[in-house]
Design brief:
The complex is a heterodimer of chains A (234) and B (172). With 234 residues, chain A is α+β, with helices and mostly antiparallel strands. Chain A is built from 7 helices and 9 strands. The chains are: A alpha+beta (234), B alpha+beta (172).
Chain lengths: 234, 172
């Protein structure tokens, strides 16, 4: 990526059937999915029969009855894929999983609020919005009207799986000076025949084989958005 | 061969709860919304059925952006160092091109039990930004905790690549 991100990370989200109450730092340690030291140092955020969230090692794990997510803000990102592979490819291999998402997100700065606004105008030209566009363009700059979110999607399908790559661009809420952009690439995958899903191994092994290529592609897409800074500042 | 030193790995800090715009658009069609189920959420909202507030705010985490990343395969272990063959992941290489020597002290305590001949690790050099916003250059070694079926595939691929490389050397 041509601009060093200020913040960012990767997450894996699984959609299926989960029992949140079994997921705890000490259960993970007992299954040798994390170390005892990591379990001892874990920080529990929420423990509830229908929602569990805790930090353990470099991961934040969240579990709901139909969604499991693990996120990390420190490279190497492959550690996430390895953790999911072991948890659902070995320990909880009978978990019914129907979908997964590999998400890469970054917050990066473009220098000035004006540069960010120009990038927003490139992605969502204000002229196309007629009189309303003119109202937005001439309203108080402190109110910051214009593009607030844009998503592009590419779909694909093969024999066993199908999915879509969804890239969302928004103003960054984390970078000061209104000069930041947030980009998330969601690589969504689901079984072509969800009724035939029997456990987690098939979809998890596909996730493992796809993971690094997905991250590489996400970073190429993110870099394409970053390149817009050169267009508006030359 | 080169010897490298790694930086310390500070303990992770809790994460900020990010503001999320309140939804104002009408509900999208199921077809358009399916991808949202696997996209990451920027903020955890309080679930209605939790009753009294039990959500603790997450404070900012550290962030490590990799400038360079290698995958390493441990070939030998000495008294104070270990040697590994490296694949340059940043350059999208698939062939072991370099050999490097690392200090045993640079391996974290939690990873030390994973260090043995044949172990696979990632070596990352990059910028670490901590929760307070300060930034420094770090070098970290993280051993991969692989499922048995992935480890088998990786070792088989490595063996095939080694055979191909030897075959090419003969032809020269």
């Amino acid at each position: 990526m041509r601009i060093e991100p200020e913040l960012g990370g990767v997450s894996i989200v699984l959609v299926g059937s989960f029992n949140p109450s079994i997921f705890s730092p000490f259960w993970l340690a007992k299954q040798e999915l994390v170390t005892v030291q990591e379990a001892d140092a874990a920080s529990v955020i929420v423990i509830h029969p229908e929602f569990v969230q805790f930090e353990i090692g470099l991961f934040i794990i969240s579990v709901e009855p139909h969604k499991f997510s693990v996120e990390c803000t420190r490279a190497p990102w492959i550690s996430l894929a390895d953790f999911v592979s072991r948890t659902f490819g070995e320990t909880l291999v009978h978990t019914p999983l129907r979908q997964f998402g590999i998400n890469r997100n970054v917050h990066f700065g473009v220098g000035t609020e004006q540069a960010r606004n120009r990038i927003g105008r490139l992605l969502a030209p204000i002229e196309l919005w007629g009189d309303w566009g003119k109202e937005i363009d001439t309203s108080d700059p402190n109110l910051r009207g214009g593009m607030v979110s844009l998503t592009m999607q590419q779909k694909w399908s093969d024999t066993d799986f199908k999915g879509a790559i969804n890239t969302t661009v928004q103003p960054s809420s984390r970078i000061t000076g209104n000069s930041g952009i947030y980009v998330q690439v969601n690589d969504h995958v689901e079984s072509v025949n969800p009724s035939a899903v029997d456990g987690a191994f098939s979809i998890v092994s596909f996730l493992a084989s796809r993971f690094e290529g997905s991250i590489d592609k996400s970073e190429i897409i993110i870099d394409q958005v970053m390149a817009l800074k050169d267009q508006v500042t030359k | 061969m080169r010897t490298v030193a790694t930086g310390s790995r500070p303990a992770g800090a809790p994460v900020d709860v990010l503001p999320r715009p309140a939804p104002t658009a009408e509900t999208k069609s199921k077809e358009q919304n399916f991808a949202a189920t696997t996209a990451a959420e920027q903020k955890y909202e309080l679930k209605p059925n939790l009753g009294p507030s039990v959500l603790k705010l997450r404070s900012p985490q550290s962030f490590l952006h990799a400038l360079q990343e290698w995958e390493g395969y441990v070939t030998s272990i000495g008294d104070q160092t270990f040697t590994a063959r490296l694949i340059d992941k940043t350059a999208k290489s698939h062939i072991e091109e370099e050999t490097a020597e690392f200090l045993l002290d640079d391996v974290s305590d939690s990873d030390r039990r994973l260090l043995r001949e044949g172990s696979i690790f990632r070596w990352v050099i990059g910028y670490l930004k901590d929760a307070g916003g300060s930034k420094r250059r770090v070098s970290e070694i993280v051993f991969r905790r692989l499922p048995a079926w992935t480890r088998h595939d990786l070792l088989s691929a490595r063996a095939r690549a080694t055979e191909i490389t030897k075959g090419l050397a003969w032809e020269e």
